[in-house]
Amino acid sequence: MTKTDSAPEIQADLIIEGAAEVVTCAGASQGDVGAIPDGAIACTGGTIVFVGTGADCGRRVALKPGGRRLDARGGVILPGFVDPHTHVPFAGWRDGEFEKRLAGATYLEIAAAGGGILSTVRATRAAGLETLTTLVLERLDAMLLCGTTTIEAKSGYGLSLDAELTILRALARASSHPVEIVPTLLGAHVVGPEFRDGRRAEYVRLVAEEMIPRAAAEGLARFCDVFVDEGAFTLDEARTILEAAKRHGLGLRVHAEQLRHTGAAALAASLGAASVDHLEQATHEDVAALAASGTVAILLPGAAYFLRETSRPPARAFIEAGVPVALATDFNPGSSPCHAMPPILNLACVLFGMTPDEAIVGATRQAARSLGLEGRLGTLETGKQADLAVWDLPGRKHLAYRLGLLPCRAVVKRGRVVAENGRLSAA
To answer: What is the SS3 assignment for 20?
Structure first.
């Protein structure tokens, strides 16, 4: 028997074939998507065991008894989106503020009048654990149907020890959902309402000496985030909080250079932060600092669009300097009420000057890198976790070209079909 006549060497419990292209996102650069025309992919036990052409798959891969064969119907197979900056656990929407903003009110003016983040804090505190858990699960359902298989989710709408821990516990309860959750403590979103009259230093101590140790000891958070900006925290306050987080084994993330330039990006880089997010006001010096540190720049075009910001993060300068650039929805009720990644890809191209391929890599490989998950997620390679989405689109660039919710034929998480034809799987 010749080698070509031998039995297939790979056994799989799921084969997806008939794709116009498989987009591996496993290239070396921000714009290298590693596309395979006429592609197929196979997985077993939740792990990818084959990525290649359909012809090669037919020769090398056999379906196990009871396995499933899924027809991509000339569509596109991509890694599941990794959304590395969200504020999913909250109660209450802020549609009234949207109208005020359209009438000319600024983000800071709305906050100063008692709206903004503190408005969401009041609603979230009142919701309680059960309601928050239900809300998180409903939002994860919606994200999954749009091809997202992993998210980072922040607290930050509690701003007291008990309320912040309750939000993190809601995320822990929602961890049974197919969408994987990476929890982040954002107790330093803004100063808690009870500490606003001359008690800022006391609130910073609460975050650094109580919230962080409790969240770390109970395993409720993997990262700690700080919002450094006018109306939020100063550079010195952020350093105190971030250094406490490092001592307790939490990774660091920083909201930086969004509304005003504060120097927070350089601070984050010097502390070895996993990511610096927003960056609308970033300078050439910030680009150099992030390039030297390896910190991922997470850009949030939904927020820039929704707030009608005229400043843009220097996306091209980041990419040309070798800074890994990730994209995220920043899903939240005040400045980016968007849960789907495809519109974010479009906005990143139109507003920030990224190419469609750069945006795709930003929403997959670089996003996984920002969470320390690049060894397992974000690309389609043998040995990686089988997280992927099948899109009823003629080519990958349609994900950024077409603005709006797009037809996601199927979503696979850990090798299991968890959504298909716009419906969640019964399991």
So the answer is: coil
Q: Which two tokens stand for residue 30?
A: 């921000």
Which letter, b or e, does each residue of 366-380 get, where b requires 16 or more Cβ atoms within 10 Å of its Cβ? bbbbbbebbebbbbb
Cβ proximity of 354 and 111 under 8 Å:
no
β-sheet bridge partners, residue 188 = 226
Domain with 418, as residue range(s), is: 3-80+378-424
What are the start-end ranges of the E strands in 105-246? 148-154, 180-188, 223-227
CB 166 within 8 A of CB 131: no
Q: What is the pLDDT of residues 4-19, one digit of tens each?
A: 557 789 999 999 999 9
Tell me which of 370, 388, 411 is where a domain ends.
Answer: 370
pLDDT digit string, tens, across residues 83-99: 999 999 999 999 988 98
Token reading at 81: 């989106």
pLDDT class of 361 with cuts at 50, 70, 90:
very high
Distance set, CA 76 to CA 24, 71, 105, 408 (Å): 11, 11, 42, 10
Structure-token match 């034809």, residue found: 421
Number of domains in the chain: 2
In whole angstroms, give the CA distance from residue 412 to residue 71: 13
Tens digits of residue pLDDT in 71-81? 999 999 999 99
